Amino acid sequence: MSSDRRRFLLSCSALALSPALTPLAQAQQNQQRVALLREVTGGEVPNMGRVLVDTPPLADNGHSVALRIVVDSPMTPAEHVRRITVLAERNPRPVVASYLLGPWSGRAEIATRIRLADIQDVLAVAQLSDGTWWMGGAHVVVTELACLEG
Amino acid sequence: MSMLSRIQVPAQARRGDVVPIRIAIQHPMETGYRPDNFGRRITKNVINTLTCRYNGVEVFRAEMGSGVSANPQLQFYVRVEAGGEFVFDWVDDSGQRGSERALIAVTG
Questions:
Q1: Which whole number is the average pLDDT over B37-44?
Q2: Contact A114 B67 (CB under 8 A)
Q3: Are residues A99 and B59, on separate chains, in Cβ contact within 8 Å?
Q4: Mutate to test the interface with B, among A93, A109, A121 (most CBs of B within 10 A)
Q5: How many structural domains comprise chain B?
Q6: pLDDT tens digits along A26-77
Q7: End-to-end distance of chain B based on CA atoms, in angstroms?
Q8: How would you label A106-120 residue by residue, b for 16+ Cβ within 10 Å and e otherwise?
Q9: pLDDT of A40-51, one tens digit each?
Q10: What residue numbers bound the domain in which B19 lies?
Q11: Which CATH architecture does the domain made up of A46-144 adopt?
Protein backbone atom coordinates (compact mmCIF):
# COMPACT_ATOMS: atom_id res chain seq x y z
CA MET A 1 0.00 0.00 0.00
CA SER A 2 1.52 3.30 -1.03
CA SER A 3 1.92 6.00 1.56
CA ASP A 4 -0.35 8.24 -0.50
CA ARG A 5 -3.11 5.72 -0.28
CA ARG A 6 -2.55 5.17 3.42
CA ARG A 7 -2.70 8.88 4.10
CA PHE A 8 -5.83 9.21 2.08
CA LEU A 9 -7.58 6.35 3.87
CA LEU A 10 -6.66 7.97 7.15
CA SER A 11 -8.04 11.28 6.02
CA CYS A 12 -11.33 9.69 5.02
CA SER A 13 -11.86 7.96 8.33
CA ALA A 14 -11.02 11.19 10.12
CA LEU A 15 -13.59 13.14 8.15
CA ALA A 16 -16.47 10.79 9.04
CA LEU A 17 -18.39 10.51 5.81
CA SER A 18 -22.14 10.35 5.77
CA PRO A 19 -23.15 7.08 7.47
CA ALA A 20 -26.09 6.47 5.13
CA LEU A 21 -23.82 5.62 2.18
CA THR A 22 -23.30 2.04 1.08
CA PRO A 23 -19.66 0.93 0.98
CA LEU A 24 -19.65 1.03 -2.83
CA ALA A 25 -21.08 4.55 -2.99
CA GLN A 26 -18.63 5.59 -0.32
CA ALA A 27 -15.69 4.19 -2.28
CA GLN A 28 -16.86 6.10 -5.34
CA GLN A 29 -17.15 9.28 -3.36
CA ASN A 30 -13.67 8.75 -1.94
CA GLN A 31 -12.26 8.36 -5.42
CA GLN A 32 -13.93 11.58 -6.49
CA ARG A 33 -12.51 13.30 -3.46
CA VAL A 34 -8.99 12.14 -4.21
CA ALA A 35 -9.33 13.28 -7.82
CA LEU A 36 -10.52 16.70 -6.70
CA LEU A 37 -7.75 17.05 -4.13
CA ARG A 38 -5.11 16.08 -6.68
CA GLU A 39 -6.53 18.65 -9.09
CA VAL A 40 -6.24 21.38 -6.48
CA THR A 41 -2.78 20.49 -5.18
CA GLY A 42 -1.30 19.53 -8.52
CA GLY A 43 -1.01 15.80 -7.79
CA GLU A 44 -0.52 15.50 -4.05
CA VAL A 45 -2.96 14.20 -1.48
CA PRO A 46 -2.84 16.57 1.51
CA ASN A 47 -1.94 15.42 4.99
CA MET A 48 -4.74 15.47 7.51
CA GLY A 49 -4.44 18.15 10.20
CA ARG A 50 -3.27 21.69 10.96
CA VAL A 51 -6.35 23.14 9.23
CA LEU A 52 -9.43 23.98 11.27
CA VAL A 53 -12.71 24.50 9.44
CA ASP A 54 -15.22 26.25 11.64
CA THR A 55 -18.82 26.23 10.41
CA PRO A 56 -22.13 25.86 12.17
CA PRO A 57 -22.95 22.10 12.23
CA LEU A 58 -26.51 23.00 11.25
CA ALA A 59 -27.04 25.82 8.75
CA ASP A 60 -30.55 27.11 8.15
CA ASN A 61 -29.79 28.59 4.79
CA GLY A 62 -27.41 27.15 2.22
CA HIS A 63 -27.18 30.47 0.38
CA SER A 64 -25.05 31.92 3.12
CA VAL A 65 -23.12 29.68 5.48
CA ALA A 66 -20.56 31.30 7.77
CA LEU A 67 -17.12 29.77 7.36
CA ARG A 68 -13.92 30.38 9.28
CA ILE A 69 -10.63 28.70 8.47
CA VAL A 70 -7.65 28.71 10.80
CA VAL A 71 -4.32 27.12 9.88
CA ASP A 72 -1.84 26.24 12.59
CA SER A 73 1.22 28.19 11.48
CA PRO A 74 3.54 30.75 13.10
CA MET A 75 3.36 32.89 9.90
CA THR A 76 7.06 33.78 9.93
CA PRO A 77 9.13 34.31 6.77
CA ALA A 78 10.57 30.81 7.30
CA GLU A 79 7.27 29.06 7.96
CA HIS A 80 3.95 30.39 6.74
CA VAL A 81 0.82 29.55 4.79
CA ARG A 82 0.89 30.37 1.10
CA ARG A 83 -2.56 29.38 -0.02
CA ILE A 84 -5.87 28.16 1.34
CA THR A 85 -8.46 26.58 -0.96
CA VAL A 86 -12.04 25.87 0.10
CA LEU A 87 -13.83 22.87 -1.42
CA ALA A 88 -17.48 21.86 -1.33
CA GLU A 89 -17.59 18.57 -3.21
CA ARG A 90 -21.31 18.44 -3.77
CA ASN A 91 -21.65 21.93 -5.14
CA PRO A 92 -21.95 22.16 -8.94
CA ARG A 93 -18.54 23.84 -8.91
CA PRO A 94 -16.62 22.22 -6.06
CA VAL A 95 -13.81 24.78 -5.84
CA VAL A 96 -15.37 27.59 -3.82
CA ALA A 97 -12.46 30.01 -3.41
CA SER A 98 -8.72 30.30 -2.91
CA TYR A 99 -6.93 32.77 -0.67
CA LEU A 100 -3.29 33.76 -0.97
CA LEU A 101 -1.49 34.65 2.23
CA GLY A 102 2.10 35.24 3.32
CA PRO A 103 4.26 36.02 6.35
CA TRP A 104 2.89 39.58 6.27
CA SER A 105 -0.55 38.20 7.17
CA GLY A 106 0.55 37.62 10.76
CA ARG A 107 -2.27 35.18 11.30
CA ALA A 108 -3.42 32.35 9.03
CA GLU A 109 -7.11 32.90 9.41
CA ILE A 110 -9.88 33.93 7.06
CA ALA A 111 -13.64 34.21 7.43
CA THR A 112 -16.28 34.46 4.72
CA ARG A 113 -19.72 33.19 3.70
CA ILE A 114 -20.30 30.43 1.17
CA ARG A 115 -23.10 28.66 -0.68
CA LEU A 116 -23.79 24.97 -0.08
CA ALA A 117 -25.93 23.03 -2.56
CA ASP A 118 -26.18 19.95 -0.37
CA ILE A 119 -25.46 18.47 3.03
CA GLN A 120 -21.76 17.79 2.79
CA ASP A 121 -18.25 18.01 4.16
CA VAL A 122 -16.65 21.39 3.60
CA LEU A 123 -12.92 20.87 3.07
CA ALA A 124 -10.09 23.34 3.29
CA VAL A 125 -6.62 22.55 1.97
CA ALA A 126 -3.63 24.72 2.78
CA GLN A 127 -0.20 24.87 1.23
CA LEU A 128 2.64 25.83 3.56
CA SER A 129 5.83 27.64 2.63
CA ASP A 130 7.74 24.31 2.58
CA GLY A 131 5.39 23.11 -0.16
CA THR A 132 3.47 20.56 1.92
CA TRP A 133 -0.32 20.41 1.78
CA TRP A 134 -2.58 19.99 4.78
CA MET A 135 -6.32 19.71 5.06
CA GLY A 136 -9.24 19.77 7.42
CA GLY A 137 -12.97 19.52 7.08
CA ALA A 138 -16.31 19.95 8.77
CA HIS A 139 -19.64 18.28 8.10
CA VAL A 140 -22.43 20.79 7.54
CA VAL A 141 -26.12 19.93 7.57
CA VAL A 142 -28.08 22.46 5.53
CA THR A 143 -31.86 22.66 5.96
CA GLU A 144 -32.58 24.95 3.00
CA LEU A 145 -30.20 24.15 0.16
CA ALA A 146 -28.73 26.72 -2.20
CA CYS A 147 -30.59 24.88 -4.93
CA LEU A 148 -29.81 25.15 -8.61
CA GLU A 149 -33.19 26.66 -9.49
CA GLY A 150 -32.43 29.75 -7.42
CA MET B 1 -24.74 48.49 -11.64
CA SER B 2 -22.84 50.12 -8.89
CA MET B 3 -20.75 48.11 -6.49
CA LEU B 4 -21.14 49.50 -3.03
CA SER B 5 -18.60 48.30 -0.56
CA ARG B 6 -17.65 48.69 3.04
CA ILE B 7 -14.20 48.24 4.51
CA GLN B 8 -13.37 47.98 8.16
CA VAL B 9 -9.75 48.71 9.00
CA PRO B 10 -8.71 49.88 12.48
CA ALA B 11 -7.94 53.63 12.43
CA GLN B 12 -4.77 53.09 14.41
CA ALA B 13 -2.54 50.28 15.59
CA ARG B 14 0.85 49.73 17.16
CA ARG B 15 3.88 48.68 15.14
CA GLY B 16 3.89 44.91 14.68
CA ASP B 17 0.19 44.48 15.50
CA VAL B 18 -1.81 41.94 13.52
CA VAL B 19 -4.96 43.80 12.55
CA PRO B 20 -8.23 42.36 11.26
CA ILE B 21 -9.39 43.65 7.87
CA ARG B 22 -12.99 43.24 6.81
CA ILE B 23 -14.58 43.93 3.48
CA ALA B 24 -18.14 43.53 2.23
CA ILE B 25 -19.14 44.24 -1.36
CA GLN B 26 -22.63 44.53 -2.76
CA HIS B 27 -22.76 42.07 -5.66
CA PRO B 28 -25.30 39.38 -6.69
CA MET B 29 -22.57 36.76 -7.37
CA GLU B 30 -24.75 35.17 -10.08
CA THR B 31 -24.04 31.45 -10.19
CA GLY B 32 -25.06 30.90 -13.80
CA TYR B 33 -27.65 28.33 -12.71
CA ARG B 34 -30.44 30.71 -11.76
CA PRO B 35 -33.22 31.35 -14.30
CA ASP B 36 -34.78 34.77 -14.80
CA ASN B 37 -38.54 35.41 -14.96
CA PHE B 38 -38.67 34.05 -18.51
CA GLY B 39 -36.85 30.82 -17.67
CA ARG B 40 -33.62 31.88 -19.34
CA ARG B 41 -30.41 31.26 -17.50
CA ILE B 42 -28.80 34.34 -16.03
CA THR B 43 -25.15 34.40 -17.08
CA LYS B 44 -22.61 33.60 -14.41
CA ASN B 45 -21.17 36.79 -13.01
CA VAL B 46 -19.14 36.70 -9.83
CA ILE B 47 -16.35 38.81 -8.40
CA ASN B 48 -13.54 36.47 -9.44
CA THR B 49 -10.55 38.30 -7.99
CA LEU B 50 -10.06 40.60 -5.05
CA THR B 51 -6.68 41.96 -4.04
CA CYS B 52 -5.54 44.00 -1.10
CA ARG B 53 -2.36 46.06 -1.27
CA TYR B 54 -0.74 47.70 1.71
CA ASN B 55 1.50 50.64 0.77
CA GLY B 56 1.73 49.21 -2.72
CA VAL B 57 2.59 45.64 -1.74
CA GLU B 58 0.04 42.90 -2.29
CA VAL B 59 -0.78 41.33 1.08
CA PHE B 60 -3.90 39.35 0.25
CA ARG B 61 -5.61 37.89 -2.80
CA ALA B 62 -8.90 36.00 -3.08
CA GLU B 63 -9.88 34.01 -6.15
CA MET B 64 -13.58 33.35 -5.89
CA GLY B 65 -16.14 31.22 -7.71
CA SER B 66 -19.90 30.80 -7.68
CA GLY B 67 -19.72 29.04 -4.32
CA VAL B 68 -19.24 32.35 -2.54
CA SER B 69 -22.43 33.91 -1.19
CA ALA B 70 -24.05 36.96 -2.72
CA ASN B 71 -22.73 40.23 -1.29
CA PRO B 72 -19.42 38.59 -0.44
CA GLN B 73 -17.77 39.41 2.84
CA LEU B 74 -14.29 38.55 3.92
CA GLN B 75 -12.15 38.91 6.97
CA PHE B 76 -8.40 38.41 7.02
CA TYR B 77 -5.36 39.67 8.91
CA VAL B 78 -2.34 41.80 8.13
CA ARG B 79 0.66 42.63 10.28
CA VAL B 80 1.34 46.37 10.14
CA GLU B 81 4.87 47.74 10.51
CA ALA B 82 4.27 51.29 9.32
CA GLY B 83 1.32 53.56 8.80
CA GLY B 84 -0.14 53.71 5.35
CA GLU B 85 -2.92 52.89 3.01
CA PHE B 86 -4.82 49.72 2.21
CA VAL B 87 -6.07 49.60 -1.36
CA PHE B 88 -8.63 47.01 -2.44
CA ASP B 89 -9.31 46.19 -6.07
CA TRP B 90 -11.75 43.69 -7.45
CA VAL B 91 -13.17 42.66 -10.78
CA ASP B 92 -16.18 40.55 -11.78
CA ASP B 93 -16.75 38.23 -14.77
CA SER B 94 -18.39 41.05 -16.74
CA GLY B 95 -15.21 43.09 -16.39
CA GLN B 96 -16.64 45.60 -13.99
CA ARG B 97 -14.09 46.83 -11.48
CA GLY B 98 -14.34 48.23 -8.03
CA SER B 99 -11.85 49.86 -5.73
CA GLU B 100 -11.74 51.13 -2.18
CA ARG B 101 -9.09 52.45 0.14
CA ALA B 102 -8.56 52.95 3.86
CA LEU B 103 -5.89 54.63 5.96
CA ILE B 104 -4.27 53.31 9.09
CA ALA B 105 -2.01 55.17 11.53
CA VAL B 106 0.72 53.13 13.19
CA THR B 107 2.40 54.27 16.41
CA GLY B 108 5.30 53.00 18.51
A1: 92
A2: yes
A3: no
A4: A93
A5: 1
A6: 777 788 899 999 999 999 999 999 999 999 999 989 999 999 999 999 999 9
A7: 43
A8: bbbbbbbbbbbbebb
A9: 999 999 999 999
A10: 5-107
A11: Sandwich (2.60)
